[in-house]
Amino acid sequence: MIKNYFKIAFRNFLRNKTFSGINIFGLAIGIATCLIIMLFVNNELGYDRYNKKANRMVRVYFEGNVQGEKMKEVSVMPPVAQTLKADFPEVEEATRIRDYGTPKLVYGNRTFKEDAFAFVDSNFFQVFTLPLIEGNAKTALLEPNSIVITKALAHKYFGNEDPMGKVIAFKDGKNAACKVTGLIDKVPVNSHFHFEIFASMSGLPESKEPTWMSSNFFTYLVLADGYEYKKLDAKLPQIVEKYMGPQMLQAMGMTLAEFRKKGSDISFHLQPLTDIHLHSDFNWDLSQPGDIRYVYIFAIIALFMLIIACINFMNLSTASASKRSREVGIRKVLGSMKKDLIRQFLLESVILTTMATLLAIYFVYLALPLFNELSNQHLTLNFAEHPMLIPVLLFLVLFVGILAGSYPAFYLSSFKPVAVLKGKFTSGKQNIGLRSGLVVFQFVISIILIVSTTVVYKQLSYIQNKQLGYDKEQVMILSDTWMLDKNQEIFRRSLLNDPRVASISNSGYLPAGNSNNNNFFVAPEEDPNRLIKTLRYDVDENYIGTLGIHLLTGRNFSREFVTDSSAIILNDAAATAFKWGEKAVGHTISTSDNHGKKINYHVIAVVKDFHFRSLHELITPLVMVLSPDAGTLIVKLKTKDVSGLIATLKNRWAALGAEDPLSYSFLDDRFNNTYRAEQNTGKILGIFAGLTIFVACLGLFGLVTFTAEQRTKEIGIRKVLGATVSGIVTLLSKEFLKLIFIAFIIASPVSWFIMNKWLQDFAYRIHISWLVFILAALLTITITIITVCFRAIKVALDNPVKSLRTE
Q1: Residue 100 has what pLDDT?
Q2: What separation in angstroms does the CA of 59 have from each of 55, 219, 754, 801?
Q3: What is the pLDDT of residues 170-186, one digit of tens each?
Q4: Residue 276, CB half-sphere, CA atoms under 13 Å: how many?
């Protein structure tokens, strides 16, 4: 019986090669899209789940509201970890990470610059599941100046030698040399941190400081099994009262109650470990986070693509129904039961789906490199690494095969044998309405994707062209110039003497890309207790001019004024926050250091607001003080020979004895990289929109074919009576244009709602114009007309005598 079913299935496949081929191709595209997105979603949702205690782990973060200025920091104070473990029995373990930037390390006669170095507590490898290949997880970091490294880093430093016991020194001499006491394979790709050197926290004096006024430590807790973290979160206010309150009085000169009375507040909160990657919105973190919204968007696209592919199958199968009507009639007359026919047609559908799945796997292998590049992922379709893919694919074959084949199976098996054998095969208005409804659904999704892609591109174009308040063109950033040590000033002067250089500023505070960051709490002279949260930029006297920042009032910093060591420049937002506006110059603001000592600054200027953060955020108060930050040069160029200048700089750099190559970037590139995720998402949406429209057109082709076959006699009579080819094409096209119009009416408000929600994440955004919807409608209509004409013209050109004879 099964053997006969397969024979019939393959015979029908060969008999209807065109429809079967289109079915397979359409399903393959839908399944391939679904597989790629499924790999993406699985990877995004799997972040940090490699930890055996992941479901019990949380991270502590700090939140505050100071005079209306909000702050949300993921790094907290040194005592937080042990304090929470000591005060709350539900906390079983507490461990910390201290990101140590990019130290220079020395082994033998070689020097290495490391950007994946962190200090961690001794119990770190008992909390995080990073098994040691060599060494003991419990004791590896107990002693000060001990380190655990990855295999890759061990090979870089020691080659094929055994790394255990080897000693690596800090080049700056500020820290003691470290001995390798453990070796791990690597930190998994889907982890929210990616360090290669883990040093013992007990060798870091900062980790033992009792201060609750500075925060540099990422703190993680392991809670009791089954304990709801929100219960502990609700208890954390008492930590602020008990420990931060007394130090606040000493540092700020006010009690916590007085601080809150002025409308400000501070608090600690907990974030589940498995939420870090997709649900973080901190200004700075250990890695670039993902976005749960894109996971939802891509998952919905995968579902819709699969549904559209199944709809195509239904439309194409029913479009070819007239060719199989006599077969169904004869088989029924010969005794076939309806259930046998349903089983046969479903089997054919599953066979086609199997073939489509095999083709889809090939498509995935071809498309994954491009998708990885656009999404910054490392996805692979590796059945050995992901054994669950095999049962998933089998389920997908059965699910899609049955879903796509169910309607055609019941539709074809319901033919009346007497009617079809007499040539009275008709589809019925109900079936035509259903197929038309499916086409409307396809084009609703297509229009939504077209509108979404257009809005994303328009918003990104708006960002690229928005006036930022500073000049990002022809600005080069030279990083880590501290490597030159005493030769830094020689290098800077040689740059100034180069006719291709307009000006140079010495500061690590940059308005785009990675930048130094420093929260600064200050108060106006007339109200010392009214603290305002600002960002502090340490700059030199050339900073404002080099970046083209506009002075609204006052003067720039100058080395000629000795008092400028205590001078300060505000941005317009800060002047407004202090309620001084244009009259800010001459006023005094004050702050306190960690020991409670009061420091006064006098305002000498106000600059026009410039975007020193992402355009996702509003411009907040900023202050600048004269304190050149050695280590980074901001170079304003005045030449088109940028490559020649870079070659010159590299030679000068090497001649001055630098061990590492010159590290440089351009400010406009750093700005563009800030929105790289949105740009790539726009490209991915564009690709998916194109694929969706293409697959939808396959279904439209099927419906046109079905309609043409149903109206063959009518078309023949019209041609005999003098109808033109254009008239016949118009006759067949107008019905589908009605469907597009209906789809447009449905899709427009839905797409507006979706994209309006997306745009709300930007503080500076476009307004969605009605022209976007008109463009989407025109594009969809054009594609529809091309698809319909492709089939309709062929029908219109057929010999009417032949069509009338076949009826």
Answers
A1: 84
A2: 12, 6, 32, 79
A3: 876 666 788 999 999 99
A4: 28
Contacts of 265 by beta carbon, 8 Å cutoff, 6+ apart = 64, 65, 259
Residues 6+ away with beta carbon under 8 Å from 97: 118, 119, 120, 124, 193, 195, 217, 218, 220, 286
Q: From CA 748, how far away is CA 744, in angstroms rounded?
A: 6
- Three-class secondary structure of residue 519 per DSSP: strand
How far is C-alpha 317 from the geometric centre of its chain's CA atoms? 39
Statement: residue 89 has pLDDT above 70: yes
Secondary structure of 370-414 in the HEC alphabet? Answer: HHHHHHCCCCCCCCCCCCCHHHHHHHHHHHHHHHHHHHHHHHHHC
Token pair listed for 198: 């883990």
Condensed to tens digits (0 to 9), the pLDDT of residues 706-739 reads 666 666 666 667 766 666 767 777 776 777 788 8
List, for residues 285-328, the tens digit of each pLDDT value.
Answer: 888 888 888 888 888 888 888 888 877 777 776 666 555 666 66
- Residue type at 294 in one-letter notation: Y
> Does residue 627 surpass a pLDDT of 70?
yes
Q: Tokens in use for 725?
A: 């080819």
Helix axes 770-797, 712-720, angle to 10 degrees: 80
DSSP, residue by residue, 619-661: ---EEEEE---TT-EEEEE--S-HHHHHHHHHHHHHHTT-SSP
| Residue 345 amino acid letter | F
Per-residue pLDDT of 438-468, as tens digits, reads 778 878 888 888 888 888 888 878 877 778 8
Choice between 85 and 10, residue whose per-residue pLDDT is larger: 85
* CB-side neighbour CA atoms (13 Å) of 309: 31
Longest dimension (CA), the chain: 108
Structure tokens at 34: 């679904």
Residue 334: the pLDDT is: 57
Compute φ and ψ for 219, nearest 5 degrees.
-115, 130
Instruction: Give the residue, 503 or 288, on which the prediction is more confident.
Output: 503
Q: Is the dihedral of CA 150, 156, 157, 162 positive or negative?
A: positive
Mean pLDDT of 511-532: 75
Out of 165-174, 447-456, 636-645, 696-705, pick the least confident: 696-705
Q: E strands along 44-115, which residues? A: 57-66, 69-73, 91-99, 104-107, 110-113
Confidence at 344, pLDDT banded by 50, 70, 90: confident
Chain center to CA of 22: 34
Q: Which tokens hold the place of 592?
A: 């306190």
The model carries a pTM of 0.79
Query: Distance between CA 754 and CA 445 in Å, rounded?
Result: 12
Distance CA 696, CA 502 (A): 56
Answer whether 133's CB lies under 8 Å from 109's CB: no
CB-neighbour burial class of residue 324 (10 A; exposed 0-12, middle 13-18, buried 19+): buried
Structure tokens at 329: 């009639």
Q: Hey, how many other C-beta atoms are within 10 angstroms of the C-beta on 661?
A: 11
Is residue 261 scored above 80 in pLDDT? Answer: no
Cβ neighbours around 413 below 10 Å, total: 21
- The string of DSSP codes covering 571-612 is EHHHHHHTT-GGG-TT-EEEEE-TT--EEEEEEEEEEPP---
d(CA 17, CA 13) in angstroms, rounded, equals 6
Mean pLDDT score of the chain? 80
Supply the DSSP string of 469-480, one letter for each residue. SS--TTEEEEE-
**Residue holding tokens 């419906």?**
703
- Residue tagged 């839908």 (tokens): 30
Q: Which amino acid is at 576?
A: T
What letter represents residue 780's amino acid?
A: T
* Helix pair 429-465, 292-319: axis angle to 10 deg: 150
Rounded distance, CA 345 to CA 408, Å? Answer: 8
